[in-house]
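Message: A physicist's question: would you kindly supply an amino acid chain plus C-alpha cells?
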Amino acid sequence: MSPNNEPVYTQYKDELERYQFQMGMERGRLALTLDLLTDALVLVGQHGVYCQSARQPGKPAMDVQIISRQITDAKDLILGVMKELKRPTS
C-alpha cells in the first residue's frame, strides 16, 4: 500500500494507463516504477543537503549515500529489463 493507503494501481491510474498505452503492460509498469524511483531519488538528494556527514563535510550522511546508490542501482536494473523486453524474440 502507498503512504495514503491507496493501492498503487489506483493512486497512479492515469500515469500507468498512459505508459501502458505507449509501451505495453510490462514496460509501462516498469516506466512508472522508474518515475517513482526518480522522485524518491530527488527527495533523498534534497534530504542529503540538510543531513550532512560529520566525517565527510560537504557530502550527505552515509545512510543517505547508501539509499541514493541503491535507488540508482534499482533504476539501472529496471532499465535493463525494459531493454530486454523491447528486443524482438526469435
Q: What stands out?
A: Helices lie at 8-11, 13-23, 25-50, 62-86. The two ends are 38 Å apart (CA to CA). The chain has a mean pLDDT of 91.
